[in-house]
Amino acid sequence: VVMHDRLSSVRDLATLKRRYPTVIVWGINDIERARTVIAQGVDGIIADDLALLADIRELLNRGALGADSP
Predict the structure, then answer these.
(1) Residues 36, 39, 45, 48, Cα dihedral to 10°
(2) So what's the pLDDT on residue 6?
C-alpha cells in the first residue's frame, strides 16, 4: 500500500500493517516526520528531497532513527 503522508494516522498505519505486507508513505519532507512514520512501522518513504533520503538512510544504518531512538 502506498499512501500520502497527509492521509496517514497512527490508527491507519497500524491497520494497514496488519492487512498488507508493505506500507509506503510518500510526501515525507522532513527528518522528524520520517522519524515518526518509521517508528510507526512503515516499510518505505518517498520524499522529494534526495539529500533527505540519504540522511534518513545514514541514520537508519547507524541505528539513530526509528522506534528505539530518542
Answers:
(1) 20
(2) 82
